[in-house]
Fold:
Amino acid sequence: MKRIGASLMLLLVLCAVPALSAEKRWVVSDGTALKAEQSISAASIADLAVGAELTLVEAAGRWLKVQTADGKEGWVYAGRVSDTAPVAEVAGGDGLFGDSMQKSQINTAKADSARSIRGLSPEVAQYAKQRGTPEGLKKELDKILLRKVTDREVKAFLKEGEIGEYAH
Amino acid sequence: MKRVYLSFLLVIICLMSSEANAGWQDRLNNLLVPDSKERKILSGATQVMSSSQEMSYATERTVGESLALESMQRFGKPVNNEALQKYVNLVGNSVARNSRRSTIPYQFVVLESQVQNAFAAPGGVIFISRALLGILENEAELAAVLAHEIGHVAEKHALKSIRRAQFLQGVGTISAATMKGSEGKKFESMIGDLQATLFDKGLDKGMEFEADLAALETAYRTGYDPSAMIGVLQKLKKLQGADAKKGSWFSTHPPLDERISRLSSNMDKYPDHGALAKLPGRFAKYVKATK
Structure:
């Protein structure tokens, strides 16, 4: 690690130029929209993918004015972004090093399609068979995996509780 | 030597991949900033290089669901109350969507167990016992406990704890067909390791503190009062002397005093927390009614 650090430092010294880095934020929450005003009921300008990088323009309490990479400006609820990038997903292939560089952006999108609802997988069914898991427990797991909570239900739930963006 | 070579290669790749981008020098500068995206990408890349591979989400999910079967064997079946299970899933999914790992599916399960406990299987199946649920007072406290467990899933704490398992030293993937053979044996042994870690030994202390802080952050982002996490730990502390059952949050987690003081010292990040949602009424409607 020390050596990696040293070689990088050398490179930085060679390449460094004074750079003003604007404050960045990353979209962390699923289902985030860029809003025209500081309100959940304002019109949506764009849908923001998890992992998208934003530049902070102005902070006003729990709402932030931001600019997207393609230059769109609008408001996001502060709870939906973070000053650190979200966890990257490994979406298959079990790749060695190959997909690590940009996996945050690419693979969170791929992992999203994994949110489809399904019951017990063939692998887990085989595991249960080998372990002699009682049939009743397999059915319970199946039921757990089939229990569905939609984005719409979550929004209605937050709204009913006046939570976060829905607080008055 | 290998590492020097790899780091050099990495730097070249960084340069080449961003050559077309006018901001490449800024990106390099950002490597110096501890929380910068560039630094994170670099640390991710070096981690991938130092371990042989990372597990795919599909395999992580298989691990988690297999562990879920063992968890129910050990602690009890899910509580037979669909309205309660749905409510806990709504609270859990509300916070999960604002966690650092928001795009995977999460399921939350209340188990018929008298041990005050909550735990997370890799990939997003999260359990809370009826006994732990029973000592909570409001929705913000439930959100905080679930957000703590989501923190473990997001940071892959359980998998990191068993990285020496033979299965992870090998191909690290499993299918229904390979489950039948020697890979399946290694897989079963790894599920055993996971049970020992989660239910007997407990995760590393640092991981628990990390999940506690993630709970504050995730609850706050969603709009719940994050101080509820401290409230939960204080309730557990009161019970600790009288009712410390094996496998509970007392026996597998770091000392409660230490957790409470660490969390308290982080609360100044959330000056407006008192005004955020607690929702004792809605919580009572679903939870207290079933006691």
Remarks:
- The first helix of chain B runs from residue 2 to 18.
- The CA atoms of residues 119 and 256 of chain B lie 17 Å apart.
